[in-house]
Structure formats: structure tokens, C-alpha cells
Amino acid sequence: MQRLIKKSSKSRGLPPGALVHIGEKKTEKVKISVIDYIEGNYEEREVKNVEECFPFKDKPTVTWINVDGLHEVDVFEKLGKCFEIHPLVLEDILNTDQRPKIEDFEKYIFLILKMLFINDKTKEIHSEQVSLIFGNNFVISFQESIGDVFDAVRERIRKGKGRIQKMGADYLVYCLIDAIVDNYFIILEHIGDNVEGLEEDLVNNPKTEILQMIYNLKREMIYLRKSVWPLREVINGLLRGDSKLIKKETHIYLRDLYDHTIQTIDTIETFRDMISGMLDIYMSSISNKMNEVMKVLTIFAAIFIPLTFIAGVYGMNFQYMPELSIPWAYPTVWAVIIGVGVVLLGFFRYKKWI
């Protein structure tokens, strides 16, 4: 699991709007791709320098500019000047520890989201910050590394499936957010499988290793909650805002997206309660296991206390002990010892202590 709080000492003492990349460098070179489309036609290409994106600003078509990599500050400075993006917005894009949020600047709307994915090797959940800026006819997305969950959206644009080529930039933003939220359900299914497996192990054989797995799951749920909970406010801001950039026909899709977000949050809260309950189950299982051990030891002690007393009495070296001179004294003592043990075992079973 990634750090819950990233170091941001690089920006200490700098003026507001200073462009400094805060976070891990996840790609060697910044990659910029452009998809420009209108109903019945689309163009897709990868540009070599950021200046090639500038002509798309004033085109009547919908343009999606995707930037992979956040460490080259000059790229953001040039994009910011061309599309008139506020320096504080660029600063937030470069700081990868931002909370999901929405800001309306009239000419464009700025969004920050968290895209989650599972590492195929370690099976751990990792997060990547995705920033979106969209205006009347353009969408600019910024990602930390190459690779995302938007392939299905790109395929729909290429093949003209659905309404995406008929709608505007606001509908494209909806599709991108919807792809991120849909991927949350895959993450939750993975966590659900882990929770079910841990529950079975807790009931059958609670080991010390399970406690570490429970704490790892609990940490993952904290990270998920931190990433997903603010998304409700973001989508609600898109719905309740009075921006002219969001058309009325897009609102119905945003409401459906809001419902999916609430469902995701409810599932996260359910898993959090289950994991907290698993800690109680683990402690109860360990306590019950210890009680079983203590019960066995107590039964042994309760049986051997009277037997030890009998052996102690006849182990004393007094000269005048009447029983020592009787020929059947030794077997009689053994019979008494065995009889006492059997009687005590029968008494314990009668009381249902064993």
C-alpha cells in the first residue's frame, strides 16, 4: 500500500502558484496524445511536443488531450498559457497528494480524482491522481504514468458507439469519471474475496499471520475511503452547479454516476465494519483457544491434586503406619488412586465441563 501522506517539503517557502512536481516520477518521458472528434469523424494521434495541441483550442470539434507524466514543468507552463489555466490549478495538478475536488472557473472546470488499480504481482492496491480540465469544446487529462482505465472510452470514440460522438466535452468527462468509478467495483470485489477468505481462516484456524493480513486490509480500506468519499462532493458539484459548460441532457448521466458513487461508499463502509469485526473475532478465537488449553490444564490439576495428596501421605517415612504392614496395602492405594481419578472424570462430565 502506498503512503497515506506524501512528502511535500519541495514546495516549502515557494510562492503560491509555483510549479513543482510533488510525488514519484512514474514515467521517463511525458507522453501527450490527442483525440479530436465530431459525429461521424475522429482523429487520433500522439504529438511530439506540446505546441501541436494549441490549434485544437478554437476548433468546433471536441478535443481530448491526455498527458501522461507530471515531471516536466515546462509542458504545464505552455499548456497553461495557451488554455488560460490558473497557476494554482497547475500547482494542484503537479501535487499528487491532492484530495478529490472540483473548482469552477467559468471558462473551464477543474477536477481531481483518484484512479485505483491492483498490482498484478503484489496484489496490492495502488492509486494514481487524475486531473481533468474541461471547457466548452476540450478536455485535458493529466496522469502520473502511462496506462489507465480509459481504453473502453477511447474504443467508443473510435467506433462511434453510443452517444459519445454526438455529445459534448461534458459527456466525455462523465465517461472518464464513470470509467474510474466502475474500476472501483473491481477493487471492491478483490477486497471482498480477501475478506471472505480471512473469515473462513479466522473460524477454522486463527493464526498470527492472519492478524497482519487484517491490519493490511484495514489500512487499504482507510486509503480507499480517503480516495472515494470526496468523489461524492465532486459529482454533486457537477450536478448542483450552474455552469453553462454542463448541459441539461448530461445531468441524468451524472445522477446515475452519483448513485454508483454512493453504492461504492456503502460497500466500503460495510467492508470497514466487517474488518473491524474480524479483529474482534480474532481476539475472541485466540481467547477461546487459550480457554480450552487452560480448561485441559485445570482438569489435569484437579485430578492430580487428590492423587498427589494420597501419594504424599503414604510417602512419609513413619515407622508406625498401620497400612504399611498390610500385604494388600500397595494395590489398595493404587485402586484408591485410580478410583478417585475415575470419579473426578465422571463428575466433570456430569457437570459438562469436558
Short descriptors:
Beta Polymerase, domain 2, 2 domains, Methane Monooxygenase Hydroxylase, Chain G, domain 1, 354 residues, seven-stranded mixed β-sheet, alpha+beta, rod-shaped, 15% strand
Description:
By secondary structure, this protein is α+β, with helices and mostly antiparallel strands. 52% of the residues lie in helices and 15% in strands. The protein contains 7 helices and 7 strands; from the N terminus they run βββααββββααααα. A hairpin with a 4-residue loop joins β4 (101-104) and β5. α4 (169-204) runs parallel beside α6 (248-313), α5 runs antiparallel to α6 and α6 packs antiparallel against α7. The longest helix is centred in the last third of the chain and has 66 residues, at 248-313.
